[in-house]
Amino acid sequence: DAGVIQSPRHEVTEMGQEVTLRCKPISGHDYLFWYRQTMMRGLELLIYFNNNVPIDDSGMPEDRFSAKMPNASFSTLKIQPSEPRDSAVYFCASSFLRTTNTGELFFGEGSRLTVL
Amino acid sequence: ILNVEQSPQSLHVQEGDSTNFTCSFPSSNFYALHWYRWETAKSPEALFVMTLNGDEKKKGRISATLNTKEGYSYLYIKGSQPEDSATYLCASPGSGNTPLVFGKGTRLSVIA
């Protein structure tokens, strides 16, 4: 398996523009997570899905952020409109057998977003 | 809200030195402790997942210990090499059925 695949790897955009980040989890994994990495706050959970259903989106900063998982092999994180404070590295991760919390997370390489 | 703390925030060591850093977590309702290694521009990768008090795990020159009663884990690197330079993250779930909460990491730089 190729691992968790994210795109784009880098995105530079202007304030007010819409940004869409994409993720393909590892086949067979039933959990998908979106995390955001910043210097100030570290790696923080935005939202996670189980079997394509959003379970907890309490980490999504505000209504400008939305995430979908239309099928088991694809998820998107959308920011509309984007703001400079959204600049960060956004990671997607997947896992399975998480009920015992011993299942490790498999991360993508991240999408580095810069909003000017 | 679960609070996972890591120290130090950053660390610079000479090649060949051994080093260690700490992860602190609430000792009540403990489920598991994960360590991840994150090299810049790459994916964070799992190093260890530990669940039992007194657990010790080893992978090459890297090892970790777990004390669930006092709420800490140590990560040790023996004979640091430049390729060990990375950010080391620890994480723990808030409860038995919640996602991992990460610490802010320890950034290690090994100078040749």
Please, could you describe this protein's structure?
The complex is a heterodimer of chains A (116) and B (112). With 116 residues, chain A is an all-beta fold. Chain A contains no helices and eleven strands. In chain A, strands 2, 4, 5, 6, 9, 10 and 11 form a seven-stranded mixed β-sheet that branches. In chain A, strands 1-3-8-7 form a four-stranded antiparallel β-sheet, with no helix packed on it. Chain B has strands spanning 5-7, 10-14, 19-24, 33-38, 45-50, 56-59, 62-67, 72-77, 86-93, 100-102, 106-111. In chain B, strands 2, 4, 5, 9, 10 and 11 form a six-stranded mixed β-sheet that branches. In chain B, 38% of the residues are buried.
Q: Kindly state the number of beta strands of chain B.
A: 11
DSSP summary: helix tally of chain A: 0
How much strand content do the residues of chain A show? over 45%
Main pleated sheet of chain B: 6 strands, mixed
Largest protein interface?
A-B, 24 and 25 residues
Tell the overall outline of chain A: globular
DSSP summary, beta strand count of chain A = 11
- What is the chains' assembly state? heterodimer
Report the sheet with the most strands of chain A, covering strand number, pairing sense and barrel closure.
7 strands, mixed
Q: Catalogue the unreliable spans of chain A.
A: none
What fraction, in percent, of the residue positions of chain B are helical?
Answer: under 10%
**Strand/helix succession of chain B:** EEEEEEEEEEE
Mean pLDDT of chain B: 93
* SSE string of chain A: EEEEEEEEEEE
Shape verdict of chain B = globular
Rg from Cα of chain A: 13 Å
Number of helices of chain B: 0
Q: Name the structural class of chain A.
A: mainly beta
Q: Are there runs of chain B of 5+ residues with pLDDT below 50, and where?
A: none
| Span of the ends, CA to CA of chain B | 40 Å
Q: What portion of residues of chain A is helical?
A: under 10%
